[in-house]
# Entry
Amino acid sequence: MDDQRLRERLNRLADDVRPIGSVPEGLIPRARRRSVLVPAFAALALVAIAVVASAGVRELVRSDPGTPAVPGPVTGPVAEVEDHITVVLGRDGGALPGAAAAFDPDGEPAGPFMVALAPGSVPLDRTADGRLAFTPLEGGGVLSVFGPDGEVTQLVQDGSIYGASWSPDGTRLAYAVGSFGDTTIRVVNADGSNDTVLVASETAEWNAEPSWSPDGATIAFLRGEADFPGCDEVCRFVGDRRLELWAVNAGGTGLRPLAPSLRPRGYHAPAWSPDGSRIAVAAYTPQDDIAVYVVDAASGQTSRLTRRGGGAPVWSPEGDRLAFVAQDGPRFQVYLVNADGGDERELLTPPVWSASVLIWDRAPLA
Amino acid sequence: MDAMAEPVRVEGGLLEQLYLRHATEAVRFAYLLTGDRALAEDLVQDAFLRVSGRLLYLRDEGAFYGYLRRAIVNLSRSSGRRRQVERRYLERTAAEVPLASLDPDTAEREAMRVALLELSERQRAAIVLRFYEDLSEAQIAEVLRCRPGTVKSLISRGVEALRDVVTIEG
# Structure
């Protein structure tokens, strides 16, 4: 069979489709909504005061408290992809946070195709029905929820937030709050009621980056000393080097270390696999780089997952892949890797914030 | 400083132009992948929505069709679409008019359509990308996310499977 004949046959078959001379009704407005993008470089009233080492930190201070209103939704296009990764884009080479955006992990190019929050708001975790817990970097409150209807609820007014994670049923939010080197883990109902301490800071201590297990029974988090001989300013600031992966029952009992051999990196939340059997953690390698490790939740056994250095791991809804943030030259990018460590590759996105949390879900984007 | 800055919008006029410029070519391509015109139009609209959401990050407008084509292939391979294609294929096969009762041109196209649908989805995509879209094996490998050697094998098996219908009917 000659190739030319096959070409002719395909062309003749394709001619079954008549030329299209009009645009389907409603398509352009939908496409226009999808192409909305909030500039990633809008100025912020509040700025990050420091980015320490290459991975950056999320400790932020108010330069002008009490001025603007709580940032809320700027645009409201509804994403129409099966699953998406939400991330904060980076300014100044990834040192400072810009706008939040969502990307299609299987898209070419990946995005962005929506932005739900005002620039500078940092998404932390989202419920299945689309309620997004975020840290508003300006305006009142330090932890708020942005609902699918566009309403913003302030949950926590004071302190700095060091991670937040919804219970699987979306009724409660675990979060870490305090000042660096002295943070507690608390749990609050979604409506702001019943805000209670889960893990207190007995002395100067980090209790940060809580992550609720898929069965709702356990909260994993990072715990460690914040002040010890030889720990300099930088060490105290990022709460690093002596952090460990710990867990506590959702009721507050059973405080325990999960993987004593692992040295997690501060400001990177542990991430449970959807089946609850494994926890991905950004941790120091023997060479003192940072890479993503996977911890067996039952045995505490650890193994390195990512070939390149990187952090902020998150699992896909199916648990077959993970996304993480890694540095590529002067910029930070999102990378994908199979759960077995294979097929590590970059997701084509604009540069992302070095300290961004990733959310990979199928929830409505509001 | 205005944290509530107006979003940048891609004008509707540009989107409309892009759709009209590429729709016929795209729907024909999708039709060869699915064998169903309505499904092809539906698929192209979804692909158009996906790609138009990223217009601001396309390096040049000339690349639009390449991204659209890739989105069409990805969407046609998603499990939901696959089930739709299979269901439509079964429905059409059940209601099939015998080829002998059709005029020769229609019968030839119908035989080709059915033969394409009997290929595996990857073989079909490789054949259509190679012989309809005129992509190189390396370009096809990029679209299908596989090695060029795999593309060569997909094409070779696909051509072999189509041999009868193309030579006998041709």
About this structure: Chain B has eight helices and no strands. The two ends of chain B are 69 Å apart (CA to CA).
